[in-house]
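User: Hi! I'm a student and our assignment asks us to look at how structure tokens line up with a sequence. Could you show me two examples?

Assistant: Happy to help. In each example below, the sequence comes first and the structure tokens follow. Example one:
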Amino acid sequence: MLQSVLNRLPEQQVERHLLSEQGEHVVDLVRHHPIVYWQASTELLVVAALWVAAVFGPISLGWFFIIAACALGVHALYVMAREHRDVFVITNMRVFRASGVFSVRIATMPLRRILDITVEKPFLGRILGYGHFVFESAAQSQGLRDIRFIGDPDGRDLTIQRVVQGSGLRGSSDQFLSE
């Protein structure tokens, strides 16, 4: 049921933010791990319980249960949309994050500015297959420092390393061996 709701949510239009005239293309579009939907799922279960209470509970409080269920249901849909529209994009030139439901926020970092990537995998993340990225660059206070709840963090890290290596921003391994 949750997947059918997610399929109906509007997608983030990342193609509009690409420099296609300069040859930029998407290498990987990364969505959050499904664990981020636990809050919305829990809220939807409470909504169902509130509807049951509205139908079978005391008639004098039915209006309260209905209003509470509607408010919580709207919040659950907002949380699902917020997480669904928060995407991390790896291109051949940069990495960027597009987020927002009603307004869109774009945080960009060119590949040449990435100094270090730390992959954090908490215990639960190791079991369920998610982790967090911490990007370090010369400008420490930027909007693309922490990317949380990324599925297959090791694979995503390798993808970024391959793109950086393939772009020629770092010397090849042959260069380091000959020095």
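Example two works the same way, sequence first and then tokens:
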Amino acid sequence: MDTASNPSPGFQRNPGRRITVDPFDGVVTVTFADAIVASSDKALVLREQDYPPVFYIPFDDIYFDFLQPTDTSTHCPYKGDASYWNATASGEAEKDVMWAYENPYDEMIRIKDHGAFYPNKVRIEANPNSGAAGADL
């Protein structure tokens, strides 16, 4: 990987910071207002010190019919700029339920084209394959 093209300023300032991204061996399903808004057997688990693990689901497995982009954005010195989406389903609506780093820094390129959801705004079910590691999420 050519880390000179879009390197993370966070990792440059704090090279000891550890963020891991690993495949989840199982199926992750995200539900909002009784509508499935995402379901994937290709989810990634991002683990970052001081934060709970976060599932990142490939865009191909997210049902964008229930999601609308917002003007909300945030910046992470390790991952880059995040974009957000609102959810609408079954007559219910919630602001900024999903975020994604559409152009992440090189060190986090694995989460490109993946979305993550706030567990306090949607229901996230992670069903590991039998005997799979990672069931402790």
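Here is something you could point out in your write-up. The chain has a mean pLDDT of 93.
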